[in-house]
Specification:
By secondary structure, this protein is α/β, with parallel strands linked by helices. It contains nine helices and 15 strands. The chain is about 30% helix and about 25% strand. The longest helix has 14 residues. The N and C termini lie close together (about 10 Å).
Length: about 300
């Protein structure tokens, strides 16, 4: 089979499309014929070696954790799934023609494989950080970097729960944020004052890692009311860095519910063939995404 892998840490140019042995589903796992794989910032952070001190990775290594495809092998003890089922979920080395998933759910009928591949990690992250922020119906959540995949999910989950959202994004994405129910404002000089004029902020999420944690602390009045998934300076300011994954099963179940009810849609900003994984990483690192990027297999 074909698989994207890298033999040294570095930039996008270290990615190679290679022949590899097919993986097989162990106990409690399934294998899918991959139709699409989600592109997440964690993919290129791992490729750069950013997590080596936390979780060492042996090289060569594959890339990717989110995928959608058709079940073609079922491991011992894996239940509720049959050969031929279309599923989406998370596993390892998903930039490949075949991948093993550790968590999965049947795809909602409304989704294509391309769309479904963009949901798993995004939904888990969005649900986790909203929970950690402690906001509830009637309160206001500030989201820095609101137009990407996680931001798109946060805005729609918040809307479903009656939580008001102020979202920051580039000028080109202001109408997009408003369409998801947020009060939108732009980045740039004076952004914090623009937010302050919009009213009280009960908690804030930093999804962009753009160096605005001090302002978010000032706007909320308490560093413990600010959560980032992207800024390593968090601890210096007393801000919580959220990196530990929650329940992927719960995330997939909630995603399926919201999608089926018409309350969740994350657009695919761009799709790339397997051979152009490096280009997908370049674009992901550049930011300014509206929705998700995916690899088509």
């Amino acid at each position: 089979m074909k698989k994207v892998s890298f033999a040294a840490f570095g930039g996008p140019d270290v990615l190679r499309l290679m022949d590899a042995e097919e993986p097989h589903a162990g106990p409690g796992r399934i294998r899918i014929a991959v139709r699409a794989a989600g592109v997440n910032p964690v993919d290129w952070r791992i490729r750069e070696g950013q997590f080596q001190q936390i979780s060492p990775l042996a090289l060569p290594a594959g890339v990717g954790q989110d995928a959608a495809g058709v079940v073609d092998e079922i491991g011992e003890g894996a239940e509720g799934v049959e050969i031929g089922d279309p599923v989406f979920g998370v596993g390892s080395d998903t930039y490949a023609e075949f991948a093993v998933l550790s968590s999965w759910a049947r795809m909602p009928e409304a989704l294509t494989f391309e769309e479904a591949a963009g949901y798993p990690s995004v939904m888990e992250t969005a649900l986790r950080i909203i929970r950690e922020a402690g906001v509830s119906s009637g309160q206001t959540l500030l989201v820095n970097g609101a137009s990407g995949g996680v931001g798109s999910a946060v805005l729609q989950i918040a809307r479903d729960r009656g939580i008001a959202v102020i979202g920051t994004a580039g000028a080109a994405n202001q109408d997009y944020l408003r369409g998801l129910g947020a009060v939108a404002t732009t980045y740039g000089e004076g952004w914090a004052e623009r937010v302050r004029r919009l009213g009280r902020v009960d908690a804030a999420l930093d999804l962009a890692g753009s160096g605005v944690l001090r302002e978010l602390v000032e706007l909320t009045g308490d560093p413990q009311k600010v959560i980032t998934i992207a800024d390593p300076a968090a601890r210096e300011l007393g801000v919580r860095f959220s990196g530990a994954a929650g329940s992927m099963t719960d995330a997939l179940t909630e995603a399926a519910r919201l999608i089926s009810e018409g309350g969740l849609h994350i657009p695919v900003a761009r799709s790339y063939p397997l051979a152009e994984a490096a280009a997908a990483h370049i674009d992901s690192q550049a930011g300014h995404t509206r929705g998700r990027r995916v690899i088509i297999v």
